[in-house]
Amino acid sequence: VGLHSLSMSKFTLILTSLNLQVLDKCKIFSSVSLLVFITFSVRSQDIRNTVGNIPMEWYKDYPHIGYDLDGKKLFKPIRNKDELDEFLDKMENPDYWRTVQDKMTGADIRLSDEQVDLVHRLQQGKFGDVNFNEYEPAIDFFSNEVMIHPVTNRPQDKRSFIPSLIEKEKVGKLVHAIKMGWIKPRRPKETTPQYYDLWAKEDPNSILGRHKMHVPAPKMKLPGHEESYNPPPEYLMSEEERLAWEQQDPEDRKLSFLPQKFACLRAVPAYSRFIHERFERCLDLYLCPRQRKMRVNVNPEDLIPKLPKPKDLQPFPTTQSLVYRGHSSLVRSISVSPSGQWLVSGSDDCTVRFWEVSTARCLKTVEVGGAVKGVAWNPNPSICLVAVSYDDTVVLLNPGLGDRLVCTASDQLISSYEEPEEVKDQLVQWAVAEGEGHEQGHRLILKHPKAVRQVTWHGKGDYLACVMPDNGSSLQVVIHQVSKRRTQNPFRKNKGLVQCVSFHPIRPYFFVATQRYVRVYNLIKQELTKKLMANCKWISSMAIHPGGDNVICGSYDCRLAWFDLDLSTKPYKVLRHHKKALRSVAYHRHYPLFASGSDDGSVIVCHGMVYNDLLQNPLIVPVKVLKGHTITHDLGVLDVTFHPTQPWVFSSGSDGTVRLFT
């Protein structure tokens, strides 16, 4: 085995590169002949590196990797393999699996079949030499037979028959330690069982201590006058009281026995229910659970949410300023012009009235052919049109108020329409008003197949949506385009009875409120985007925040639900401030205000601040209850709407008035 250092390191390299972690030394060195064979086979094709057993990282920054026997530098291969070369070599070289790198020279060495076989044998824990027999018969040198000649003829040592001085010294030290008491003998184990107190180390001041939780059994009630053998006459029952006592259930009786009177103590008989009562007392003592409940002392004021004071949230409407009188029946719908100068109201007395907001003066009255269900002023300031719905008709009126240029431009917009060459059948009949109707302001008349309950404009002012509630029909919502006089039914079928609809103020979304749900549709993609669950029995009205990310819904079961569309499909807050059904809800276009009108005759104004920071939830604070309407036929406030620029709110009621709160 006296080989050069390179050969041994080369052999170690072969084994370690094939993940041989534990090598049995005796098995390796038992196969010396095979080792010599591998060594010489590697030696014959290798340039010897004479640096010895040092870390090869020391040569990392040098072009050479060591020195040969003549002292000349051994240069590294011209190009080191990167990972891509390694991968290509692995894919294309069939001998890649048996190729190892020599760290001493940097060269790749292909292992021969004999070397691979040697590695496999060592991995399996076998001997390196193929010809070595590990199961040779053992020679029994030391048998039970006494032989003439011993195996070893060595004479016995002197120490085998002379007492040891070292042991004598150790024993002396132990004897001295026992005498001095430093080493104590082991005590015999006690066979008697030991008992421990589980609660010996318990903290006596702990709240949940066993002794603190113990509740003594309640004492029995002491006997009173009625238990006496000679009670006063007022404690004795009459015949009627006795009969009533016997008819009662045992649990309902005030006394568990009948008071009786005896002449003397000797005449008192044994109590018949004595054993029964003692038995029940024993049951009460060991069966009735007694536990001390830990009460949490909470200050009730801490449970009330900390809301800002209403003074800090001004401006908001606080006082009734004007009353618009003139309608003879309940006013179902109101709407304000985009400039905030005019107000339109529709009533069950079959009239539409136009008012000047600042003076409460009725400027114009237009009679229509039925009770007005809804009015809506076009939100586009460059168009002066008002949509009015009654029965199965929607009329577009030009009130002729305000800027004459705008009124003239609105008439030109309608009169400039040219009919297409191909006239398609439409769901709704469009007609241009003529004669007396035109003089009153009628411009377009739209005849629907069913009664129209609600009208609402798109923000741009060209599209108009109408609601015709009918549970069994697919035609409940239609959208009209005024400039092209076109009508379309956006839904093939409606899920549920549609209550109200609304356009999104910014994005192409369309909100449809049925009895229980609010569905949000994308008009461009023509698909359902969200389905909001209102958690109420019947939705009555809906309003969308000007920012577009929040919706409020009023319901007939006295609830107002605020939805945060980014947060959840369930209400962020549910307000139950009204005592009766909510008829209408509205947002202000610029101020953080929203209002709700109810059949209890009140309008509640709330501060609803929506923050630009998405991590901050909206702040909802009720700030004012506005009263003024009188309840008529169990109806109160039927519609509310805000002024477009001022923090004012308009409300219409069943008492035939419209009121302005500023």
Q: If you had to describe this structure to a student in words, what would you say it looks like?
A:
The protein is of the alpha+beta class. It contains 12 helices and 33 strands. The protein has a 5-stranded antiparallel β-sheet with strand order 10-11-12-14-13. A 4-stranded antiparallel β-sheet has the order 5-33-32-31, with no helix packed on it. The chain has a 4-stranded antiparallel β-sheet with strand order 6-7-8-9, with no helix packed on it. Helix 1 packs across helix 3 (32-44). The longest helix is centred in the first third of the chain and has 16 residues, at 165-180. The model is unreliable at 1-46 (pLDDT under 50).
Radius of gyration: 52 Å
- The rough form would be described as flat
What structural class do the secondary elements suggest? alpha+beta
Cα(first) to Cα(last) distance is: 110 Å
H/I helix tally: 12
Strand content: 25-35%
**Strand count:** 33
Unreliable stretches (pLDDT < 50, length at least 5) are 1-46
Report on the biggest sheet. 5 strands, antiparallel
Helix content: 10-25%
Mean pLDDT: 85
Strand order of the largest sheet: 10-11-12-14-13
WD repeats: 324-365, 630-662
Protein name: Ribosome biogenesis protein BOP1
GO molecular function: ribonucleoprotein complex binding
Keywords: Nucleus, Repeat, Ribosome biogenesis, rRNA processing, WD repeat
Gist?
One of its GO terms (biological process) is maturation of LSU-rRNA from tricistronic rRNA transcript (SSU-rRNA, 5.8S rRNA, LSU-rRNA). This protein is α+β, with helices and mostly antiparallel strands and 662 residues long. The chain is 18% helix and 26% strand.
